[in-house]
Amino acid sequence: MKNEASSSNRREESLVVDCGLWRSSCGYCKSSGGTIISYGLRAHSLTVNDYQDLLDRGWRRSGCFLYKPEMEMTCCPSYTIRLKASDFVPSKEQRRVYRRMQRFLDATLEARKPMELADDQNASKHTGSSVNHLVSSSGNESFFFGNKWENKAEKFMPRLSNQIDKVVHTYIEVGNFLLEINFQMLRACKGHINFYSTDKSASLDRDVQIVALPEESGSGSQSSSAKKSSEHHQGQKRKLEIRLKRSSFDPEEYALYKRYQIKVHNDPPDRVTESSYRRFLVDTPLFNVSPPADGMVPPCGFGSFHQQYMIDGKLVAVGVVDVLPRCLSSKYLFWDPDYAFLSLGKYSALQEIGWVKENQAYCASLQYYYMGYYIHSCSKMRYKAAYYPSELLCPLRYQWVAFHLARPMLDKQKYVILSYYANLQDGESSQSCNPESLMNLQHDENGLEDSNDVFMGEDERVIEIESDSSDDELEPETSGLGSGAIDNGDLTNVLVGLRGSRLRYKDLQRAFGPTKRNYFETQLRSYQRVVGVELSERMVYSLG
């Protein structure tokens, strides 16, 4: 692990190497040229406090590489987005994701293969006029298929269950209140699909066990015991277990990641290598922080973690997260394609939000859930704002602005200095300030449910430095920063590392001649501009 290589003779400190500006291809607008422009740092080590402050200045990490989009120049401006967990208001769609998982755990919703999902979507385009709605004398809801579809009823049941759930919510009202009834499918018999109403108060907690694993002494030691799971029998309830473990290489996780990248992202098999996986999702520059006896740190501590989702002992999803003093930062999620119908991207986000709320009892400063970057110009990234009420980070003044205030501005132009609109009153926004008004953000332009889940967590594929590209495929930007981007800030207290020593620039500048001094000060000003004055005086700017 990279974060274990620090010297025992020196206190924990952040040590970074300046990589300057880089160009890379864009996976969002699919531009052919190097239209993503980011500032990069290579972190040899990083404290959790420094990384928290970097996040609040628009930075993210991919393995040990830190990067920050140059918002004025990049093709798809990426705004840091966060949510205060205690204020979270789940939408109907998000509650539906929970209920779907509950039905699966209760064995009233069976697993379907990805091909079956595709068949359902295609078939539903042609069968609308062939489905007749019936209500039996007992009040049960039924749907009748013509003889043509009778033998295929079973495969359509889960999708129809979801569709009926949506329809019922739109027209059943009692007084001034919406009657929320969740219809679940029992069985298909004689051409009918029968549904029943469930108790809204049913809790998922009784089927979910959350376990924090101790640090592992060897790769895959914890997960190997769960590799073999008994075959699930019809009607037998399933068990969901969520395990939190320190970031480390696990062969079972890597096998799932490879299958996910190939099946979901269509990556060529020869590109999904163990080394690229390690660089992307295992290596971390963050120091591990163990919980002290006096509290103020969550039981798991701070640092980089993998959150495993196990169903009946089988690994079905892995969330890669960083636990920091003020937030849980979601980095990436990969899952078993056979479980796509469970919307594991949305489900894991809800679990991570709940984790933040639960751990506030141990760490009062831990209040936020960071979802990475929000890219308004990319429809497949807009789902993040559906986690209400979210905030976007102003790219100039680093102030947080409510999304419902920022959205009208982003509808007009890609790059917006959001703090200009921070003083707007809620009533002045053209968007309704409630989670249901954001429901259209849950779907992409094709309106296909769950299609956005594949992007959950790792919007950091913007650069794809560690996951899909080697470093030499990225082009350093040599034209310099935009006009006026570099000011004449005070560099005297910038902390510089040279041959094992730590010096302030004021004590080092006499060692340079005029030409080298001008060049080095230009580099330091670029660095200070992107990390801020405080961090430039706290992190070590390494010169080797």
Radius of gyration: 25 Å
Q: Give the % helix.
A: 10-25%
* Contiguous uncertain segments of 5+ residues: 1-9, 115-154, 170-207, 213-230, 442-474, 478-486
Total strands: 23
What structural class results from the helix and strand content?
alpha+beta
Largest beta sheet: strand ordering:
12-13-14-15-16-17-5-18-19
- Summarize the biggest pleated sheet: 9 strands, mixed
Instruction: State the end-to-end distance.
Output: 21 Å
Mean pLDDT metric: 75
* Portion in strands: 15-25%
Which of globular, elongated, flat, extended, rod-shaped describes the shape? globular
- Count of individual helical segments: 12
Catalytic activity: an N-terminal L-alpha-aminoacyl-[protein] + L-arginyl-tRNA(Arg) = an N-terminal L-arginyl-L-aminoacyl-[protein] + tRNA(Arg) + H(+)
Protein name: Arginyl-tRNA--protein transferase
Keywords: Acyltransferase, Transferase, Ubl conjugation pathway
GO molecular function: arginyl-tRNA--protein transferase activity
Descriptive overview:
By secondary structure, this protein is of the alpha+beta class. Among the domains are: about 90 residues, no CATH class; about 60 residues, no CATH class. About 25% of the residues lie in helices and about 25% in strands. The strands form four sheets. A nine-stranded mixed β-sheet has the order 12-13-14-15-16-17-5-18-19, with helices on both faces. Strands 1, 2, 3, 4, 20, 21, 22 and 23 form an eight-stranded mixed β-sheet that branches.
